[in-house]
Specification:
By secondary structure, this protein is of the alpha/beta class. The chain is about 45% helix and about 20% strand. Helix 2 packs parallel to helix 3 (about 60-70). The protein is globular and about 30 Å long.
Length: about 70
């Protein structure tokens, strides 16, 4: 399972990713802002996206709308 973690607080993002990698053994990518989240979301196929709504630059709601408008569920 591939997971994208989108969180601007570095320590929190790293802790979430580490827990997902170590426990269930998921493949995890991390985006620290909305622009990177859009880039990762458009270029990769993820089973799950853990998305913070309050991000610098492009907020999480905009990221969600953009990915959904491109047919990503």
């Amino acid at each position: 399972m591939r997971v994208l973690v989108v969180e601007d607080e570095l320590r929190l993002a790293d802790n979430i990713a580490a827990a997902l990698r170590e426990g269930p053994g998921y493949a995890v990518d991390i985006a620290y802002d909305g622009a990177d989240a859009v880039h990762f979301g458009e270029s990769g196929s993820y089973d799950l996206i853990v998305l913070d709504l309050m991000l610098p630059g492009i907020d999480g709601l905009h990221v969600l709308r953009r990915l959904r408008s491109q047919g990503q569920n």
